[in-house]
């Protein structure tokens, strides 16, 4: 792994893995009750260079699933484009992470008074209302 890739990846063993976008103030939390190793990868502006289309994060549990996360305040059409662009980037770049089985998650901040948090068990990545 190149140094430029290594600076984008955090290996965590927390019970809650949080991803947060400062620009939209939207967050998502993945539950990890068994404290398994999870890699939180900053994609947009780190793994994928700035000014290229990409999702915000990749949350990976090695050997299980890789979840591409786009945290969005508005413009869901662009969010889906960002997830697709990230899948293309991962397929074409040679960057290897986790299982290589990707699921995309787009989370939109629909609350006007603050952030909305989605929770999903990292072993079962379908988001649960939270």
Please write out the topology.
Blueprint lengths: L2 H4 L2 E4 L3 E6 L4 E6 L6 E5 L14 E5 L3 E8 L3 H18 L8 E7 L8 E5 L2 E5 L2
Parallel strand pairs: 3-8, 6-7
Antiparallel strand pairs: 1-4, 2-3, 4-5, 5-6, 8-9
Offer a few descriptive terms:
four-stranded mixed sheet, alpha+beta, five-stranded mixed sheet, 130 residues, 9 strands
Helical segment count: 2
* Strand percentage: 35-45%
Strand element count? 9
Low-confidence stretches: 110-130
Structure write-up:
By secondary structure, this protein is α+β, with helices and mostly antiparallel strands. The protein has one domain. The chain is 17% helix and 39% strand. The protein is built from two helices and nine strands; from the N terminus they run αββββββαβββ. The chain has helices at residues 3-6, 76-93; strands spanning 9-12, 16-21, 26-31, 38-42, 57-61, 65-72, 102-108, 117-121, 124-128. It has a five-stranded mixed beta sheet, with helices on one face. A four-stranded mixed beta sheet has the order 2-3-8-9, with no helix packed on it. α2 links the parallel β6 (65-72) and β7. The protein is globular, with a radius of gyration of 14 Å. The chain starts with a helix and ends with a strand.
